[in-house]
Design goal:
The chain has 16 helices and 20 strands. The protein is α+β, with helices and mostly antiparallel strands. The chain folds into three domains: about 170 residues, Sandwich (Jelly Rolls), CATH 2.60.120; about 210 residues; about 150 residues, Heat Shock Protein 90, CATH 3.30.565. Strands 1, 3, 4, 5, 8, 9 and 11 form a seven-stranded mixed beta sheet that branches. The chain has a five-stranded mixed beta sheet with strand order 15-17-18-20-19, covered by helices on one side. The longest helix has about 100 residues. It is rod-shaped, with a radius of gyration of 57 Å. It starts with a helix and ends with a strand.
Length: about 675
């Protein structure tokens, strides 16, 4: 895609260059040159050979305004010859050296025309490009043209610039051209400094129209591009390159209509030469804007202080031009041109440095600036009268604008792609953030739900525990009062029985508090599991012994079916809590004279411990919820014993801490069996 665009731009630029070269080119046939005021075009065919340039030695009369009929009275000493085109203040002639730019002069040349075989009146055309700065033209003794208000005094003379085409009919073999020229304004250029052209009206008009077409097309393109980039700057004020580029386009547009046939005089017919010169000279400040533009593009290659210095000088120049009369500035035109050449040189140096450092797009920028720089240097040297090639700024301007517009488009496209990527990244981040927020919200809701459940469970536990603790302490207080009363009556036997009841009640309260403490530690994660190799039967026997009084009080037969050699890897404290609670639970719900059995076996799953009773049993619909904290409830035993349900929660918690499982099976009226599987460690 990028290669296709590059090829398209390259072909477009080459096509424009070819068209401009064709449009700006002159006839390449060898044209005779004038010698001592005479040019022989008798062998020249204006229809086939095209337009002829009347270059060579013209008669020149300095400080004389001579009409055709007055030449017979002109002195021989006043006659001089010198090459045209050339400014009279630039004549390198021993007799006429150091002529001042301000003054007057007369030019004359005799043209030997092709033989008029038909003897009919033929129409020819003369084109005068620039004669500084007011003049009149005589053909064969007849006044045909006056440019500006011609006068031999500066007070009455009104200068005028711009191309003039003069069509005339003639059947003679010789054409005498006399030009009276005066200059009272331009201290740099004086006289005829561009070619005088002779040809058919059709060929000269066609050539002029073609040039005007290209100049006007250039003006239109530059104007539109300038306004377009200024609007871009209005939209994107931080992108200063758009502002500088728009100013460049507008200044180059002004230069375009100020050069060539000076079409600005057709656009503004009432424009004075003074104001034209001010506008044209001010447009040279485009060099400073170019430096500012490329300093934005290549900030490390274009020194800020140097660029600002050039800018300050050109700003001062513009103020000087527009505040004071143009006559005050004209002596400084050439220094301004030289200063602009230095600025162009520094610009070229900066771009070449960027190219060597391989800055992004430096190849495109350098290539796009090379021909425009050469065209700009040509125009400056032509303006300095160092070379006589003509103005080719229109070629360079269009090449510059297209290449740099393409470069700015690339920058804008890259910025747009970067913005798109950042937008997509931001969108992904936002989506990710939304997902994270949603996940966190769900997590918070889950935590909140769990917290609410935990609070509800704790509240329920505290309610049950408070109720059971109240009953236990009331029982202990009651039996304590009985002991005191019976001690006063000396009933020792009954005192012993009441003391046993208090002891049993205290033990129940202790077990309740122990379960509550361990559950609290488990909930806060404060209990660390420490496994060791334990003899399972010994652990079972210890817990049976702890519950011996409860077993005898309920008249329950407790059977232990555990191999004496069976070893199990478990946390001693947690295993005691598991067995104590399961045994206590089995005894609580057993009938008198029934059996509670503890047995164990080894399997590929690990060690399986069974605790069975022959008591009340559990309803089928409650089997799935007895280990859930929110479903805990106090169910009375066979002797109306109270309970909290906290013991089974601890059992499940500690079994899971061993990576084990617990399950229950039961049948109403026949008993319940708890199965604990502890994997081999």
């Amino acid at each position: 895609m990028t290669n296709t665009k590059n090829r398209t731009i390259t072909l477009l630029l080459i096509s424009l260059l070819v068209f401009y070269t064709v449009g700006c080119s002159q006839n390449t046939n060898k044209i005779p040159k004038a010698e001592k005021g005479v040019i022989d075009l008798s062998a020249w065919d204006f229809e086939k050979d095209g337009t002829a340039e009347l270059n060579g030695q013209w008669e020149f009369y300095w400080n004389k305004i001579i009409k055709p009929e007055e030449f017979q009275y002109a002195g021989k000493t006043d006659l001089h010859y010198f090459e045209l085109p050339s400014q009279w203040n630039g004549i390198k002639n021993a007799e006429l050296k150091n002529l001042p730019p301000l003054g007057k002069a007369t030019y004359r040349i005799k043209v030997k025309l092709p033989t008029n075989k038909s003897k009919l009146v033929r129409t020819l055309c003369l084109k005068f490009q620039d004669i500084h700065s007011s003049y009149r033209v005589w053909l064969n003794g007849r006044l045909y043209l006056e440019k500006g208000r011609f006068s031999e005094t500066s007070e009455k003379c009104i200068p005028a610039l711009g191309r003039e085409m003069l069509s005339f009919e003639d059947s003679s073999a010789t054409l005498e051209i006399v030009i009276n020229a005066v200059n009272f304004i331009d201290t740099n250029e004086a006289g005829i400094d561009e070619e005088v052209l002779l040809g058919t009206e059709h060929s000269i008009m066609q050539e002029s129209q073609l040039k005007n077409f290209f100049y006007l097309v250039s003006f239109g393109i530059l104007l539109i591009m300038g306004l377009y980039h200024f609007l871009l700057f209005i939209i994107r004020r931080k992108e200063r390159e758009y502002l500088f580029f728009s100013i460049i386009c507008l200044l180059l547009a002004v230069q375009t209509i100020c050069e060539g046939d000076k079409y600005i005089f057709y656009i503004l017919p009432s424009l004075t030469v003074s104001l034209y010169l001010k506008i044209w000279l001010a447009s040279i400040s485009v060099v400073a804007v170019l430096l500012q533009f490329y300093r934005v593009i290549f900030p490390y290659e274009m020194n800020k202080k140097i660029v600002n210095f050039f800018t300050a000088v050109f700003i001062f120049q513009i103020l000087f031009i527009f505040i004071l009369p143009i006559e005050y500035y004209m002596p400084y035109v050439y220094p301004t041109f030289y200063f602009a050449l230095i600025g162009v040189g520094y610009l070229f140096f900066g771009l070449f440095t960027a190219l060597l450092r391989r800055r992004r797009h430096s190849v495109l920028v350098f290539a796009g600036m090379l021909l425009p720089l050469l065209a700009g240097i040509n125009d400056l040297l032509y303006g300095l009268a160092i070379i006589y090639t003509g103005y080719y700024g229109c070629v360079g301007f269009i090449l510059l604008i297209f290449s740099q517009s393409y470069f700015l488009s690339l920058r804008y496209n890259e910025s747009y792609i970067e913005v798109e990527n950042l937008s997509r990244e931001l969108e992904r981040t936002n989506r990710s953030l939304d997902n994270k927020v949603e996940e966190r919200t769900i997590e918070l809701k889950a935590v909140n739900t769990e917290l609410s459940r935990t609070i509800a469970v704790k509240n329920k536990f505290f309610s049950i525990i408070a109720h059971d603790m109240k009953n236990l302490f009331q029982s202990m207080l009651g039996y304590s009062d009985l002991i005191i009363m019976k001690a006063e009556e000396d009933e020792q036997l009954e005192i012993n029985e009441d003391a046993l009841v208090i002891k049993d009640t205290t033990k129940k309260a202790y077990n309740l508090m122990e379960n509550l403490l361990e559950w609290s530690l488990s909930e806060t994660g404060s209990i660390q599991i420490k496994k060791e190799l334990l003899n399972l039967k010994a652990i079972v026997s210890e817990n049976v012994e702890l519950l011996d009084a409860y077993i005898r009080a309920k008249h329950v037969c407790l059977n232990i079916g555990v191999d004496e050699k069976l070893q199990i890897a478990a946390d001693r404290r947690m295993l005691n809590t598991i067995l104590r609670n399961l045994l206590s639970n089995a005894i609580k719900y057993s009938y008198s004279d029934s059996a509670v059995t503890v047995r164990a076996e080894e399997s590929n799953k690990g060690t399986i411990i069974y605790v069975s009773d022959e008591g009340l049993g559990i309803e089928k619909e409650k089997l799935d919820t007895i280990f859930l904290a929110e479903s805990v409830q106090s169910t009375p035993g066979t002797n109306k014993e109270k309970g909290t349900g906290l013991g089974l929660l601890l059992v499940k918690e500690f079994v899971q801490r061993h990576d084990g499982t617990i399950s229950v099976s039961s049948e109403i009226g026949k008993g319940t069996t708890f199965e604990v599987v502890l994997p081999v460690s």
